[in-house]
Each structure stands twice: as structure tokens, then as C-alpha cells.
Amino acid sequence: MRIDLGRTGVALITPFKEDREVDYDGLSNLIDYLIREGADFLVSMGTTGESVVLSKQEKIEIVAFTKKKINGRVPFVLGLGGNNTKAVVEELKSTDLSGVDAVLSVSPAYNKPSQEGLYLHFKAIAEACTKPIILYNVPGRTAVNISADTTLRLAKDFDHIVAVKEASRDMDQIMQLLRDKPADFKVLSGDDALTLPMLLMGAEGVISVQAMVCPRAFSDMVNLGVSGQAEKARALHYPQLEIIDHLFAEGSPSGVKACLKILGICEEYLRLPLVPISRSRYQKLQELLKHH
Questions:
Q1: CB of 288 within 8 A of CB of 243?
Q2: Active-site residue flag, 93
Q3: Structural domain of residue 24, as residue ranges?
Q4: Residues 250, 256, 257, 262: is their CA dihedral positive or negative?
Q5: CATH code of 121's domain
Q6: 165, 181, 186, 284: which one is catalytic?
Q7: Mean pLDDT across the stretch 149-156?
Q8: Is 165 an active-site residue?
Q9: Which pLDDT band, with edges at 50, 70 and 90, does 292 fall under?
Q10: Does any domain span residue 50?
């Protein structure tokens, strides 16, 4: 199975109002902004969307709203994962996946399975889901790394495991994936700062947070990187690095929500345990964004 989502995916935040209820006007503004400014596909219910602090009903309503708002203009990817394999499988079977182009499933967090446990976890998900599946490897959050061998085993055993969002920051592992992957399997960057180096090594795209702040510049950089125009890509890459550093310095999505407030798209409210960034960092981001 081959899927063409495009090159630049954006991990959507969930905007909140001052009372911490979901801000659907802000979400509408954000979706229109990203599509207008060059995002190729949108991802909902990931880490950046604060999915762990949303109720089941809120998730259903946000996903339904997002699908309706996108209205087929770009592909839509749904985040659906967890560390209880049986519960994830049951959720997959009960979720309305109409209008969903692919499922992004993060590796289990906290219970630290072995590589065989990871393989069997994603095997169960693959057997329960007919949609294309993107694996998500982010050991900095989950405390366990999906090894290149395990990712490649899954890619070769299941035709509809079509990609990995790779955020290990391990360039040796990334190069092994790029060298040994099946032809139709895609390696997507899950780390904004390393996206250009990964693209120049052969990665085919990204699921990004920074692209929510500077979608046009970031997507242009990605397109240049994929096409091998390294010098032009670098000219867009380096000016964004300082923004990226500040985006994640005090937690995510705290930084990106501050940027979206500065840009006038939505407010920066978060749900506990996350809190807004410091005023000094907010002012620094204001200054940086003046030049973008």
C-alpha cells in the first residue's frame, strides 16, 4: 500500500478559551491559516494537541469538527495510540475513521516494552485497522525507542504500515532506516531541528510543530530539501532554528501556542499540568516573529 499525504504535515494544537473549554473558532482559524500557507496534511490528536487532557467526548467532537472544516482540502491524519494494546485496538474498532486518510500511532509510554512487545503491539493495531498506519517513535517522551530493526520488520510484514514519524534524534538509526526500508515505506522527520538533515539523507517529509508557526517558509524548506536543493534549503533552515529552540524550551505546545497568540490566530491557554511560557520568552518570540 502506498499513500501520498504530501511532504509537510502539521501537528495541530487544541486551542482553548479562558475557561479552558475548546475554542472552535480558534481551531477554525488555525486550519484555514495552515492550508492557505502551504501545509500538505494535518494531524489531530497528537502530543501537540494535548490529547492526554481531553475527554473521550471532546476528542470525538474535535475530530468531527476538524474533518468537516478541512472538507477534503488536504489529507487528514488521526493520532490514535496508547500503552494498553487491548484498549487501543478497541478504540480503533469503535472510532469513525471515515474521512481519515491515515492513523498515527505512538509507541507505548511508561510501561517500557521490549522490542518484541513493541512489535506485537503494532501487529495487533495493524490487524485491527484497515487504514494506512504511521508509526511514531519518540523515545524522549515514551522512554522506549523503536529500534530500526523493529520498524523495518513491521514495514515488511504489514503493507498498510506505510511510514514512521522518527523522532529518536539518532542519526545512525535514521540512516539504517533510510538504507534498508522497503521502497514504498516513508521516513518522516518528527524533529523540526533535524528535518533538513534527514531530508538530505533521503527522508520524504515531516510532521512538524514549527510549520504551524511559519508554514510557508517551513514547507518551502521541506520541498527544497526533498528535491536536493541544499543551499536554498539551508537559507530557510537556519533562520528558523532559534524559533524552534524557544518553541520547546518550556514544554510543548506551550511555545507554539504563544506564537499563535502573537500571530493573532488563537489564545495561548493550556490545560494543567501545562502552563504558558514565561513572559521573557514570549517577548523573545515576539521579536523573532517580526522577521518572519
A1: yes
A2: no
A3: 8-227
A4: positive
A5: 3.20.20.70
A6: 165
A7: 98
A8: yes
A9: confident
A10: yes
